[in-house]
Design a protein that fits this description.
The structure holds 2 protein chains of 2 kinds. By secondary structure, chain A is an alpha/beta fold. Chain A contains 11 helices and 10 strands. Chain A has one domain: P-loop containing nucleotide triphosphate hydrolases (Rossmann fold). Chain B has one domain: ABC transporter involved in vitamin B12 uptake, BtuC (Orthogonal Bundle), CATH 1.10.3470. Chain B has 11 helices and 6 strands. In chain B, the strands form 3 sheets. A two-stranded antiparallel sheet of chain B has the order 1-2. The relative contact order of chain B is 0.21. The chains are: A alpha/beta, B mainly alpha. At the A-B interface, helix 3 and helix 4 of A face helix 6 and helix 7 of B.
């Protein structure tokens, strides 16, 4: 892996994960995961249930601490930075299962997304979020728990964007959504990326995710087994068979 | 009729004290799903420290120690601050190491903390009652409490004071939790700690603030209890602590307005029950309510209607 002090590298790579190992008790969940995300990219992490995709995201955001290895973000070592601090550095994660606050209004959920930006005027951010997800404007005073699955996913993404991140991490944004909604969500992800956001996407819905992303990593039981441009992965016979449902 | 009004007022005053302690139970439970049984003891320390601040000297660990002899209105805030510090220390020592342990472990730790604090108080202040000085403000020159008469019922200034302070404390707390940034962080952490952390909430700090508020409210109740009953004693927190816990469950545990409503309801039922049924069973009413509640409405009066899991 490249030296982090190397300026040409740190300029290109926004995030560099270098050989991280994560344990849950005695379970060796990540067995040396390395990956790299350049500014402006959408990178997809695909793999089966339990392969370690969410654990990888949680390690980056600081919810779990790797036992060894290093994570560098924007030229600094964030391996041991806790979650409530990584968000202030510009890393924002929309967690698996959406995890919106059910007893808070839509508006308050969005306000929580901007919690790390205390004292800043959020008026423009609300407008931008409501423009991106018009249904949230309609539902702004409703408790988050009363929203439908698709609306909750939009709220989770809107909330993550309220932090004004440099790197947006989306964990299974299509989970449990109807095909039409999945398409809509991915359109929005692409739109956010077009506006310049770097995105790390974790998906089981590999087809759609690879369609919109630049590069992809394939995970199996705690390690990265394959990495290539998304187009190459889409046409790779092994990937097709294992993740794209090709016969 | 006047007797009824009189009893209602007594219930309101008693219920206010339960409500203040119940706030601690309900807030801490809301955020870490722990019944901190030590709140009864923090209530007791609130009473003792208020006494210490009000007298000129007092025996601590058998030694006479000089104290400032402050007014009640200064003594109680100091007691609240000291007890708030104790609450944070208790969390740090007894609960934080068990944050990811099974809830039963933390509950046992809470019971242990409660017993420990009672014994510390006994060592410090002795096992018999300590006199709580008259707070002066509400006593007339002839030594009797000042009161106003409404129809034929006598309402003492002290009763009005206790209820007014409680209502004010509840309104401030409600504003804090609903309208401020830290309050919002508390509500978020109560719903989902990991996700709150992802938003930038320092969850351990939020938990510490919860203990500060709960402990200070308990100490406030302790100071006012002392002003009403004129004593403090190491085991005085046990029964009020249990009743406040019942009040919190009655209101819907985790719900702050519920703690207030539960406390007042419990105080009134207890007063009316001991006035019209039998004062022998004073303490039993609370437990009867708890049993009925657990059978018929376990979520409490204001239990949440929106499912926890979205």
């Amino acid at each position: 892996m490249a030296e982090v002090g190397d300026s040409s590298m740190s300029e290109a790579a926004l995030l560099l994960v270098d050989d991280i190992h994560v344990y849950y008790g005695n379970i060796h969940a990540l067995k040396g995961v390395s990956l790299e995300i350049k500014r402006g990219e959408i990178v997809t992490l695909i793999g089966a249930n339990g392969a370690g995709k969410s654990t990888t995201l949680n390690s980056i955001s600081g919810l779990v601490r790797p036992r060894s290895g290093a994570i560098h973000y924007d030229g600094r070592d964030i391996t041991n930075v806790p979650a409530h601090k990584t968000v202030t550095l510009g890393l924002s994660q929309s967690p698996e299962g959406r995890k919106i606050f059910p007893r808070m209004s839509v508006r308050e959920n969005l306000e929580m997304g901007a919690f790390s930006r205390s004292g800043q005027n959020l008026k423009d951010d609300f407008e931008r979020t409501y423009d991106l997800f018009p249904v949230l404007r309609e539902r702004r005073n409703q408790p988050g728990g009363t929203l439908s699955g698709g609306e909750q996913q939009m709220l989770a993404m809107g909330r993550a964007l309220m932090a004004q991140p440099k790197l947006l991490m989306l964990d299974e944004p299509s989970m449990g959504l109807a095909p039409m909604l999945v398409e809509k969500i991915f359109e929005i992800i692409q739109e956010i990326n077009d506006q310049g956001m770097t995105i790390l996407l974790v998906e089981q819905n590999a087809n759609v995710a690879l369609e919109i992303s630049h590069r992809g990593y394939v995970m199996e039981t705690g390690t990265i087994v394959l990495t290539a441009d998304s187009q190459a992965l889409l046409s790779n016979p092994q990937v097709q068979e294992a993740y794209l449902g090709a016969a | 009729m006047d007797y009824l009004i009189q009893q209602l007022l007594n219930g309101l005053m008693l219920g206010s004290l339960y409500a203040l302690i119940a706030v601690g139970y309900t807030m801490v439970y809301g955020i870490i799903e722990l019944i901190n049984f030590a709140f009864g003891e923090l209530f007791m320390f609130g009473a003792f420290i208020s006494i210490a601040m009000m007298v000129d000297s007092m025996a601590i660990f058998g030694q006479q120690v000089n104290f400032p002899g402050l007014h009640f209105l200064l003594a109680v805030p100091i007691a609240m601050a000291v007890v708030a510090g104790m609450g944070v220390a208790i969390d740090r020592i007894a609960y934080r190491p068990l944050r990811n342990a099974p809830r039963l472990a933390a509950l046992i730790s809470a019971i242990g903390m409660s017993i420990l604090l009672q014994n510390v108080a006994q060592a410090m202040f002795g096992s018999s009652q300590v006199f709580f000085p008259d707070i002066g403000m509400f006593t007339s020159d002839n030594g009797l409490p000042k009161y106003i008469t409404v129809s034929n019922a006598q309402i003492t200034y002290l009763q009005i004071f206790v209820v007014a302070v409680t209502v004010a404390a509840m309104l401030i707390l409600n504003f804090f939790v609903q309208r401020t940034r830290i309050g919002r962080a508390m509500r978020a952490a109560a719903q989902d700690k990991s996700t709150s952390a992802l938003m930038g909430v320092n969850v351990n700090r939020v938990i510490a603030i919860t203990f500060i508020i709960g402990s200070a409210m308990g100490a406030l109740a302790g100071g006012m209890y002392g002003a009403i009953y004129h004593f403090a004693k190491p085991d005085m927190g046990f029964i009020p602590g249990l009743k406040a816990f019942i009040a919190a469950v009655l209101g819907g545990i985790g719900n702050i307005p519920g703690a207030f409503l539960g406390g007042i309801t419990l105080g009134v039922i207890e007063s009316l029950g001991s006035a019209y049924i039998s004062s022998e069973y004073r303490d039993a009413f609370a437990f009867v309510i708890l049993i009925l509640l657990l059978i018929f409405k376990p979520s409490g009066l204001l239990g949440s209607h929106i499912s926890e899991k979205a």
